[in-house]
Specification:
single chain, 7 helices, two-stranded antiparallel sheet, 8-stranded mixed sheet, 237 residues, 12 strands, alpha/beta, 31% helix, Spore Coat Polysaccharide Biosynthesis Protein SpsA, Chain A, globular
């Protein structure tokens, strides 16, 4: 199997929890669209050969123009996304070149993922894992509740992780998982959950607190602060 690695970035969602305006992936952080930052972060890892962005249909040309000027180590292409996240991933997956053996799926809404997280996922794949996800320890106490919001049990924190992206897979595994998907989006929160249904072990590698997902307005504030901190440290230009 080829060792070429592609990263798929589903970016067709509206992101309504951020409020009205542009699709979430195109919202700016310190003047730069989240999507452009996410693509740059993937390419900066130097372990990704191809990046495929699934954009909203009406924004494909705009996204292509936005990403074309980026000087990256990875080839970048843009395709039309679907009505759902899983549909966008499936569309991007279908068009991959035959020589791609590993596939990452990364949220455009995690624009500040450090290169070390991307490298960790790809390294685990190259060492033989078929499904890899980054995760971080949970610091809050977690309770399981019933339909009436009464506590059923307390879940030991050392046995759970908050999962991030990019999530990495052997191409054949991810393709099989999407082919078997029943289309019920309410039961799917990430690509790893589809792979779990196949009975394929999913391996966890360290994530990073900087790889948080921009979902709410407060997350934009946090991202702006992190960008300012990185620039002050000379990490960003």
């Amino acid at each position: 199997m080829s060792h070429r690695t592609a990263a798929l970035v589903p970016a067709a969602g509206r992101g309504e929890r951020l409020g009205p305006g542009l699709p979430k992936a195109l919202r700016p952080i310190s003047g730069t669209p989240m999507l452009a930052m996410a693509v740059h972060a993937l390419a900066a890892s130097r372990v990704v050969d191809l990046i495929v962005v699934a954009a909203p249909t009406e924004f494909v040309d705009q996204v292509t123009a936005m990403l074309d000027p980026l000087e990256q180590s990875a080839e970048i292409t843009v395709v039309e996304g679907g009505a759902t996240r899983s549909e966008s991933v499936a569309r991007a997956l279908i068009g991959l070149p035959d020589d791609v053996g590993y596939v990452l799926v990364h949220d455009a809404a995690r624009p500040l993922v450090p290169a070390e997280v991307v490298i960790g996922v790809v390294t685990a794949l190259r060492e033989g894992q078929r499904a890899v996800i980054p995760g971080i320890a949970v610091v809050d106490t977690v309770k399981a509740v019933d339909s009436g919001d009464d506590v059923v049990s307390t879940i030991p924190r050392d046995s759970i992780r908050a999962v991030q992206t990019p999530q990495g897979f052997a191409r054949s595994v991810l393709a099989a998982a999407h082919a078997a998907f029943d289309g019920d989006e309410s039961t799917v929160t990430d690509d790893a959950s589809l792979v779990e249904r196949l009975g394929v072990p999913v391996h966890v590698v360290p994530g990073h607190e900087d790889a948080f997902k921009v979902t709410r307005p407060i997350d934009l504030v946090l991202a702006e602060a992190l960008v300012a901190k990185r620039r002050a440290s000379g990490i960003l230009g």
